[in-house]
Amino acid sequence: MSWLQLKLDTERNAVEALEDALLAAGAVSVTLQDLEDNPILEPGVGETPLWDNIRLMGLFTADTDTALATVQATAHYGADLPVHRWEILEDKDWERTWMDNYQPIQCGQRLWICPSWLQPPKADAVNLMLDPGLAFGTGTHPTTFLCLKWLDGLDLAGKTVVDYGCGSGILGIAALLLGADKVIAIDNDPQALLATADNGQRNGIDPARLTTYLPGEQPQLQADIVVANILAAPLIELAETISGHTRSGGLLCMAGLIDSQQQEVMAAYVNQFDFHPSENQDEWLRLSATKR
Hints:
Rossmann fold
């Protein structure tokens, strides 16, 4: 089955009215896309931030009268529509397409991240079988990859690890498979905690070794290693909390920031930590440090 798609380019302040107009004209869904490749830092749960310049894409059934739908959308909007065009969109099994494109990834010397529906390329490697579900963290993004590579280079035997902002649980589960004794996974999204628990079970992790908590509900503890892949703003805002979870002599790994944010993030931790050389990939940066 084919679909029809109406694309409109506009500014942020017109998005809500245009979205309503497309739905009033019969769109079954409306999707927003950034027009200028401007990143949005991680929002809080329930928040919906927008870019400055946006493309709206309204999806319509194949039998839609495009001329009539355009008139209806214009009438509901109360003004001429911004620059727009209709396109034919071939139907796809989008989940199948994503699965076909997601391949195993080697992170360091020992660790491989493997989609749960594929056979690991190296049976004798440390293979993390992952189904990210609705949570962030597949290993393909530079921030996650840099953290996984860092963990792969450590001796984690017997260590306790805090994964702050666990997402899919990929970092904490990797630490356990690489030899860590216990992981405390923390995230403000309940869906992430479910994904973490599911992925732990998929990898044969004893639930007693991987416990999940919402922020503020975790036990008071200081871990040997803390990883936090949560972007620059929350890294700064949560500096006291993240530092408090790191024991004296313990290691801290932070990611989710770009090169220009390095000094600001480091400034929030430098009073308690000695920083190691940073590593970057595609403008994304990973910081690591030892707590004094």
